[in-house]
Amino acid sequence: MAKALYGHVGAAPDRRMLDEVTRLRARVQALEFEVTRLRAENDRLAAAQAEAGDLLRLTEPAYT
After folding, report:
1. Which residues does UniProt call coiled coil (predicted)?
2. DSSP per residue over 36-52, as a string?
């Protein structure tokens, strides 16, 4: 049993597995960048909408 475990642990990693892990890490990094970009764009649009709303309230006549 110990030899079987040692053989499993001591085995060199599969090249395909390493390539897949590298590819997946790159994909995760790209997706994290995209999330950051979309959050910034969302913040920009929300600020523009709030500013437009403020301008609209300033130009509307007051009905009291």
Report:
1. 21-48
2. HHHHHHHHHHHHHHHHH
